[in-house]
Amino acid sequence: MAEIGTTGTEQQTAQTAQTAQAGLVEQAGLERQNHGDRRPGSGSGSESEGRPSSEGGSAAGAFGSRGFAVPGFAAWPVKGSPKEEGKALRGRVPREAHTEFLVDADRPDAVVAVEESNRGRLSELTPIRVGRMAATPFAFLRGSAGLMAYDLARTPMTGINAQICGDAHAANFGLYGDARGGLVIDLNDFDETVYGPWEWDLKRLATSLVLAGREAGADEDTCRAAARDTVGAYRRTMRLLAKLPVLDAWNAIADEELVSHTDSHDLLGTLERVSEKARANTSGRFAAKSTEAVEGGGRRFVDAAPVLRRVPDKEAVAVAASLDHYLTTLSEDRLPLLARYAVHDVAFRVVGTGSVGTRSYVVLLLDHRGEALVLQVKEARASVLLPHLATAGHPMPEVAHEGRRVVLGQKRMQVVSDILLGWTSVDGLPYQVRQFRNRKGSVDPAALAADHIDDYGRMTGALLARAHSHSADPRLIAGYCGKNEELDEAIASFAVAYADRTEADHAALVAAVRNGRIASEAGV
Question: How far, in Å, CA of 89 to CA of 85, rounded?
């Protein structure tokens, strides 16, 4: 599989260099996006044009290639150039326009926005969520994806759509295990994923690097440089992916070796330490700490309020019963694996920052040896980005099941995904299901040394580009982004301005907590 290369000098791996020297032309195999009007996987040609006939289809000549218009596949012969189409978009949306951030007159008050985002959550847990958001400006950003989407919907956009994370801040990247026991570095949170503007993810990521840098004690020049390098790595990675054969670009692996290709060598020590912890972060270890043996064999969860608590029998039965439908959402080859486990117990577990207050369960499975596999059954709420897509003039997708939306969005953006990803419903509410503690590890960007912030930005910028390239033609985005640093500087300026706005929003929330306007529970 191809490795991603995004050094500052745009050096490529030896394999990529050989490919370039061989004069590889841009590939026509990726679907051409219709600047916001086409979903991933839709065909780019009409069903009537060039349809195969009983005479063998439309031939280009006795010795030429026969091209057939088949829905879901690219058209042949190729017409136009996605790269040139992307480049032409600069006339309508100049790259320097991405500097723009103006506070809308009708923008919600920050505290009101937090209160609104708490609607539908478990009321007894919302003070914990507020407490976590009030801890730092970076923590506030993590919990306010909806408020930022309101602002992003009023910024310049090219109209190019991709499957986006929707909450691509710097702490939503991390390590997790693949099916063969290796570790992969990638995006790892998709609660807000939608098909929408690629710029929204990139601007949120760049802003988060500024806030994380400030929290880490970095000076303003370093924070701005981190944002700029994030965008630069995204741009260079997209250009490289645009030059690769389609299958190589699609399978570009996100692993520990990525660091050496993003000029992020200073992060190696940090990632090695995180990797060691991740390898030990398993279902078995969690079960050993969080469960106890019961008479007759088996185990059950132990209360550890408020983070982990046992649930009444009726609630546990409902969650366990929902796994029957979950099995129907998995690939059939996974079913014999789960058939070797028995369901032993269910507990409620508080998770995350933005997710606090949503319903989230852990389900204890044990095999014939008593070894544990823990599944997380987590409520899937509607993406907070949805109402803002309409404001931005983007199509509102039809969502049959929110858990399905999350799972399919995750699979579209990752090269390697949890083999047990699925979805179900409990008491009429949608849930996603996945492995819990699947050798997961994360870097706290706010705890990095100041001179490592830009390294982390380059790594995450490259990962984000690879994730977007699965659903948007990289040639199109690369054509718009270009070779120079104009876009890098513009979004860095936006990121600094939005970080300032976030600090003001955070201060408003802290003041509201102090004067008793909103309940908060800190340190949980």
Answer: 7
Distance CA 275, CA 36 (A): 38
Q: Which of left, alpha, beta for 35 (phi over 0: left; psi -120 to 50: alpha)?
A: left
Residue type for position 136:
T
Q: What is the C-alpha to C-alpha distance for residues 181 and 122, in angstroms, rounded to an integer?
A: 36
Using CA atoms, how far apart are residues 48 and 380, in angstroms rounded to an integer? 40
Select from 179, 117, 176 the least CA-distant residue to 148. Answer: 117
Task: Report CA Rg, the chain.
Answer: 24
Spatial CB neighbours of 427, under 8 Å, sequence gap ≥ 6: 318
Distance, in Å, from the CA atom of 246 to the CA atom of 276, rounded to the nearest integer, reads 34
Sign, CA dihedral 88-89-95-97, equals: positive
Q: Do residues 347 and 362 touch, judged by C-beta distance below 8 A?
A: yes
pLDDT tens digit string along 438-480? 788 888 999 999 989 999 999 999 999 999 999 999 999 999 9
Between CA 506 and CA 141 the distance in angstroms is 8
What is the CB-side half-sphere exposure of residue 281 using CA atoms within 13 A?
19
Angstrom distance (rounded) from CA 20 to CA 59: 31
Q: For the chain, give me the number of helices (H) and strands (E)?
A: 19, 13
Q: Which residues pair with 362 in a beta bridge?
A: 347, 376
Query: Cβ distance 475 to 86 under 8 Å?
Result: yes
Q: For residues 265 and 263, what is the distance between their CA atoms, to the nearest angstrom?
A: 6
**Contact criterion met (CB below 8 Å) for 207 and 141:** yes
- CA 401 to chain CA mean position, Å: 19
| Planar angle of CA 433, 300, 122, nearest 5 degrees | 50
The string of pLDDT tens digits covering residues 236-277 is 999 999 999 999 888 886 544 555 556 667 777 888 888 888
* Tokens 């997790």 sit on residue: 176
Residues 6+ apart with CB under 8 A from 359: 122, 348, 378, 379, 426, 429, 431
Separation of alpha carbons 163 and 517, rounded Å: 38
Region of 2 (left: φ > 0; alpha: ψ -120 to 50; beta: rest) is: beta
Residues comprising the chain, all counted: 524
Helix axis angle, 220-243 to 198-215, nearest 10°: 150
